[in-house]
Amino acid sequence: MVDEDKGDLKVKVFFVWGGCLIFSFLFAFFCVSETKGLSLEQIDRMLEETTPRTSAAWKPHDNLAHEMGLTDKDGKTVEETEVV
Q1: What is the C-alpha separation between 9 and 77, in angstroms, rounded?
Q2: Tens digit of pLDDT per residue, the chain (84 long)?
Q3: How far apart are the first and last CA of the chain?
Q4: What is the value of pTM for the model shown?
């Protein structure tokens, strides 16, 4: 891109790289969700309920163990709940 017989952009090649950098930043900001610390099931639920821009503030409402009936809402196991 900078050779005289090829692209002959010389210093202007930095606008190409700068444009790629800006596009990459905008793509990551608007299209990539924050999934740190979430299970795959929680990520699936988050993608149904929120957008990538607001995904960092999304908190899981439930966990997989409760959905399967292994714990109650307080996080106690079924055995602990039946004893009490």
Answers
A1: 66
A2: 877 887 888 888 899 999 999 999 999 989 999 999 888 888 888 998 899 888 889 888 766 666 677 666 666 665 655 555
A3: 74
A4: 0.58
Q: How many CB atoms lie within 10 A of CB 23?
A: 10
Residue 2 lies in a domain: no
Please give the DSSP secondary-structure letter assigned to residue 71: B
How many structural domains compose the chain? Answer: 1
What is the token pair recorded at 26?
Answer: 């905008």
In three-state secondary structure terms, 20 is helix
Domain range for 67 is 10-83
Place of tokens 């009936």: 69
